[in-house]
Specification:
Elements (H helix, E strand, L loop, with lengths): L1 E5 L15 H14 L3 E5 L12 E3 L11 H9 L3 E4 L7 H8 L4 E5 L17 E5 L2 H6 L6 E2 L20 E4 L8 H11 L3 E4 L5 H6 L1 H4 L4 E5 L3 H9 L3 E4 L12 H7 L4 E5 L5 H5 L5 E5 L6 H15 L4 H11 L2 H9 L4
Parallel strand pairs: 1-2, 1-4, 2-3, 4-5, 5-6, 6-7, 8-9, 8-11, 9-10, 11-12, 12-13
Helix pairs in contact: 1-13, 5-11, 9-12
């Protein structure tokens, strides 16, 4: 199978070294496709140029190709069987005009809980949309979504054999939506140290919770990538997952990152059908569903109980399950099949 993985015109490099959503997912699919035996072309100018030694790079985007041009003829004659793209592309007229001239499928994953697609963007067969959780499936029901757990990879983030760690870890973008202050408070309740990893997206949020986020038991690591990021997760005893009450998580990378590293998760959620529920099981983590009307203190106390429960799990079993559940080759093969 010949697969084209299309870059996305964002601000992160492909593959990203640390933070990134669509970018990390596209790289995981490219790696997974190759591992599954497919021939892979990296389409678009965003891919790092030093990949040319190991990958076929074609720095062209479909939306920039003029109709009837030699470039359109060339990409048509390449005979791609599947294009993997960011979720906006199938709703972009300039992109779909070129894709319509190709005899190939397109598959994408929904990384945003709010993006509105063209009503005819997906038919569930030739053009397929994949969603992480029951809640995301429901939000995009008009587009015939297919359930699938997203796999994300960064540059040089291979996991080592699992070990039982010591402190807690929270990882993500630091803002109101992700609510790391709840993780910090849960750690404080337990008398545990917690490392906060990620870029600050909202200074106002940090100042509002400054007393808690800068307490002695909290260590700020900043944004980590590559081996440093993988090591930080692997050396933790529990990965603590939080988000704000109204926020809808489209498909967080951290579930796969933590489980593949062998670190069990303690997840705070506010309703049924979330990504945490889709990703975790009794062997890999502990999840609590808090009442949104409860205050932060009550929610943090519930999260503290989940941390204690998660800490009893076997790290080696967590990694074994995580490597299967979030395997890039398995993920690609699921997306490559016309399952509807």
């Amino acid at each position: 199978m010949l697969v084209g993985v299309c870059d996305f015109p964002g601000s992160y490099a492909f593959p990203p070294a640390g933070y990134g959503g669509i970018e990390r997912w596209l790289w995981a699919v490219a790696v997974g496709a190759r591992a599954a035996g497919a021939d892979v072309h990296l389409l678009g100018p965003g891919w790092l140029t030093d990949l040319e030694n190991d990958w076929v790079r074609k720095p062209v985007r479909l939306e920039d190709i003029p109709s009837g041009s030699l470039a359109e003829r060339d990409i048509r004659n390449t005979k791609y069987e599947l294009l993997i793209v960011g979720h906006e592309y199938p709703s972009l007229p300039a992109w779909t005009r070129t894709w319509d001239a190709l005899d190939c499928d397109v598959a994408t994953f929904q990384h945003s809980p709010v993006f509105q697609h063209n009503p005819t963007a997906f038919d569930g067969r030739r053009s397929r949309l994949y969603c992480y959780s029951p809640e995301m499936i429901e939000r995009y029901a008009d587009h015939r979504p297919i359930p699938e757990l997203a796999v994300h990879l960064g540059l040089d983030e291979e996991e080592l054999p699992a070990t039982a760690g010591r402190d807690l870890i929270w990882l993500g973008r630091i803002d109101e939506d992700k609510a790391p202050h709840l993780a910090a408070r849960a750690a404080q309740i337990l008398g545990r140290r917690i490392q906060i990893v990620g870029p600050v997206f909202d200074e106002t949020y940090v100042r509002r919770h400054e007393r808690l986020l800068t307490a002695n038991h909290v260590k700020w690591a900043g944004e980590l990538g590559g081996p440093a990021k993988t090591a930080a997760i692997a050396e933790a005893s529990v990965f603590v997952y939080t988000y704000a009450r109204p926020y809808v998580e489209a498909g967080a990378a951290v579930f796969g990152e933590s489980l593949r590293a062998g670190t069990p998760m303690a997840a705070l959620t506010w309703r049924k059908g979330t990504c945490a529920e889709a990703a975790l099981c009794e062997q890999t983590g502990a999840m609590i569903v808090a009442d949104p009307d409860e205050d932060d203190e009550t929610a943090a106390q519930r999260l503290a109980l989940a941390i204690e429960q998660a800490e009893t799990l076997d790290h080696r079993q967590v990694q074994e399950i995580g490597r299967h559940r979030f395997d890039p080759a398995r993920h690609f093969l699921a997306m490559a099949s016309r399952s509807c």
